[in-house]
Structure formats: C-alpha cells, structure tokens
C-alpha cells in the first residue's frame, strides 16, 4: 500500500519575490485608492479598490498555498496544512460578495442623489492603478506552467483593464459632466467582481466538500486503473483536494492473481503523479471484492 507524500504541482521556480513585490505594491495601492475614493466620493474608485483588495487576498492565498504545501506534515495534521488555503478562499469569496453588494446598493442610490466627482483626480489615481497592476502582472509572466503564477498573472492583467475602465469613465465625466458615469462603472466593476467571487465560492465549497478538482479527469483515471494488467475491477475510487495545489487518491484494485509486487505499485503511483496530478496515492490490492465492504 504505497503512500506518496511528495509535493506535486509546485513550481521549481521560487516565486516568493514576485508574490512579495506584488502583494506589497497592490496592498499599498488599495489603501491609497480607497482613501482617494472616500475623499473624492467616487464609487468607481471604491469599487476598483475593492476589486484590487480581492486580488491581494487572492495573491496571499496563492502565496500561502505554495508555502503551506511545502511544509511537512505533523503527527496531528498528517496531510499537512494545505486545506487552510481552501478555507481562506471560501472566506474570501463570501467577503467579496458582501462588499460587492454594498457598493451596488450605494451606487443605485447615487442615481437619485448624484455626487460631483473630480474626474481629473480619479483619472490620475486609476492611472497609477494601471501601472501597478500591469507591472505586477509582468512579475509572473513566463511562469505559465505554475498554476498559481498563471492565476496571479491573469488577475493582475484583469485589474489593469478594470482600472482603465475607471480612467475612461473619469474622462467621460470631464468631457460631458455626466456624473452618472461613476455609479454605472461602479456597478459594472462590482458585478464583474461578484461573478468572479461566485465562481470562487463554488470552487472553494466544492474543495471543502472533497469534490474532485476541476483539473483532474476522474473517468480517465478510473479507465487507466481498470486497464492495468491483472486488474478485473476498480472500486472505492476517491479523489479529493488536499490544498489548492495538491490532490489525493485512494482506490481498491481487484486482482484475482494477487498483488504483483512493489514495482507494480511504484509504477502506478508514478503514473498517477506525473500524468494525472495526483500528489498522494493510496492503492489497496484485493483478490476479490469484500462483500461486507460498502462499494461506492
């Protein structure tokens, strides 16, 4: 019964400096943008600040996932500490949805009681956001094989686009005097955040409930195991996430001629790790199904 406790899906490249710089720059900008948003009364800036805050949280989760996944298991936490990243993602999604709802509610009220927005100030603040978000994205460019790095790159690039939308809205206010552009952009940004947060909530809930990760093809794995020489049946196949970067598997293989030896088990474990992204595999060999054991 092999137990593979080596890390999987962890990049060989040390991304700690990229995470450190990106989190530092974006956290500082969130504070700056939020202050500017309250000072100018711009909901678009506040919505963009909320958007950037969610991505700071996302960066921290990705950074934490990489760090926690590298920590050794303990006598109490035998699988390590990776599941903390799922709980953090779940809490992050709930907080994002609540914040987005508050901004939309305030924006709706703004239509009946508009606030004059200094478009020039808003443009400058959002313009700084474009530079910071684009620069942060570049820190993760070139590491596409690392899922955390790719996710961080896409989030930062999306943030730059959102900041650009705020710049355009501020420019529109300067040119036309249409103050309603500010709450409109705020609602648009908030809805974008809400959609992303809802998707994150679904994935985080599934992970906490031990759902098969989206990156794993359960049917493909079952077919691989069932097709192994000497295997007549596969049952009690369970696949679940240990963290945002690692996946575990347990399975019972029915082999009427008995277990072929350690070499067979080692080969199966290596195949599951290298081609199916399974970091921890536990395989039980049986010569016949146990009639008293529930089959799932």
User: What is the chain-wise order of helices and strands?
Assistant: HHHHHHHEEHE
Distance between the termini: 20 Å
Summed over residues and divided by their number, the pLDDT gives a mean of 80
Question: What structural class is derived from the secondary structure elements?
Answer: mainly alpha
Question: Layout of SSEs?
Answer:
Blueprint: H1 16-40, H2 43-69, H3 83-112, H4 119-140, H5 147-176, H6 181-208, H7 218-226, E1 233-241, E2 247-254, H8 262-276, E3 280-286
Parallel strand pairs: 2-3
Antiparallel strand pairs: 1-2
Report on this structure.
The protein is mainly alpha-helical and 296 residues long. It folds into two domains: 16-208, Cation efflux protein transmembrane domain (Alpha-lytic protease prodomain-like, Up-down Bundle), CATH 1.20.1510.10; 218-286, 2-Layer Sandwich (Alpha-Beta Plaits). It has eight helices and three strands; from the N terminus they run αααααααββαβ. It has helices at residues 16-40, 43-69, 83-112, 119-140, 147-176, 181-208, 218-226, 262-276; strands spanning 233-241, 247-254, 280-286.
Overview features:
single chain; Alpha-lytic protease prodomain-like; Alpha-Beta Plaits; 8 helices; 8% strand; elongated
Short description:
This protein is mostly helical and 296 residues long. The chain contains 8 helices and 3 strands, in the order H-H-H-H-H-H-H-E-E-H-E. The two termini are 20 Å apart.
